[in-house]
Amino acid sequence: MTSAPQPPDGLLPDVWFTRDLPVLRAIARLVDEPKHGGAPYLLGSVVPGSGLPKADVIAAAKALASAGYIEPLTNHAGDIVRITAISAEARRLAGLWPTPQGEWERLLEQLTARAEKAPTDVERQRWQAFADAAAAVGEHDGALLMSALIGGYVPRAR
Fold first, then answer.
1. Which superkingdom does the taxonomy of this entry point to (predicted)?
2. What mean pLDDT do residues 65-94 have?
3. Per-residue b/e over 94-103, b at no fewer than 16 CB within 10 Å?
């Protein structure tokens, strides 16, 4: 692994996007494949899918395990040898499950596309009004709404 330049503020270089997330995605792909059937798989099988050297995969697996994203099996020396499962948050971070922010963005894209491709002026105006209203709600409240929808929570009328 090449050493990243030290940030000027003295913080350690970020490894989430360059090491940990690619390894998490490789693990998630393996976990999600039906051929594995939920059986534990060797950490070594993650290396080709991550595109990173084995030493980086080992370091990432340790970080992911300590954060609770993966459930590892270790040998007597404490080295991670197999991965048995990933957390719900890991599934979201890897893209297997939706995030509220991602679903809100998808909704806005759909509304805009429907407004642009509506067959009549009346439908185009309706879809555009819907898109404008959704945009006016804002990203934060939109993500809260999508969180409720993804989680199956629908507020009741008072």
1. Bacteria
2. 94
3. beeebbbeeb
